[in-house]
Amino acid sequence: MKKWIQKSIVITVAFLTLGLITPTHEIWDAFDQNQSNRSAIDPFSANTASAAEPEVIEETEIQQEAIDYSSLLVDAAKEQSYIKFGTKIGPRISNEFDTIIFPKMEEAIAMTVASLDNESLASLTITEKPSGNYGEKIFNITSSETGNDLIRFHVRTEKRPQEGYYYNFHYHSAEDDFLTHYNLGDIYWEKNTPPKWMS
Questions:
Q1: Is 198 left (phi over 0), alpha (psi -120 to 50) or beta?
Q2: 125 — phi, psi (to 5°)?
Q3: What region, left, alpha or beta, does residue 185 occupy, with left being phi > 0 and alpha being psi -120 to 50 degrees?
């Protein structure tokens, strides 16, 4: 089975199941070795003339180009953000997050992946475990080929004298070894201590 088809299936399953189920390599090995599995889903079995095979390749290549990996990343980014916010914080900051912060997140993601080819873009994943309590991490975008982070999104709770608590959204990029703090914006909470993340 072609590698990009496997990656596409893994990404699709991961997104649809929110990362709870990820196909293992054992599934692919068993699938590839059992001819009856292949012929059950492949309308072009080994007995078909080889002239029909290029059409299948062309159709699957067209399907690969139709997948918009950037929008899949953006959808997963929003989902992970709301998982971090939880049910206590999310409803109170969702309007400002959606109108002010998230468009800037989308822009940062687009700038980060703009120079990547389709294969590298298909290998990008989003971490699925935001930090709880008062930790900053929302999610990281990571290359599954290298295992390295490309960009890390954080939110920090800040107490400002005489004003109260703010949520400072920012990100760090691999381009400068995650040293620079790129500000996305602030959302005001209130004067009382905010609840923990994911609560």
A1: left
A2: -135, 160
A3: left
Report which of 112, 111, 110, 143 is spatially closest to residue 126, judged by C-alpha positions: 143
User: What residue type is assigned to position 83 of the chain?
Assistant: I
For the chain, domain boundaries: 3-66, 69-188
Residue 61's contacts (CB-CB under 8 Å, 6 or more residues apart) are none
Cα–Cα distance, 84 to 199 (Å, whole number): 8
Buried b (16+ CB within 10 A) or exposed e, 100-114: ebbebbbebbeebbe
Let me know: does 171 contact 108? Beta carbons within 8 Å.
yes
The dihedral of CA 50, 52, 55, 57: what is its sign? negative
Quick: pLDDT tens for 74-105. Answer: 999 999 999 999 999 999 999 999 999 999 99
Concatenated DSSP letters for 2-25?
-HHHHHHHHHHHHHHTTTS----H
pTM: 0.67
Q: Three-class SS of residue 165?
A: strand
Question: Token pair 């954080």 is at which residue?
Answer: 154
pLDDT of 140 reads 95
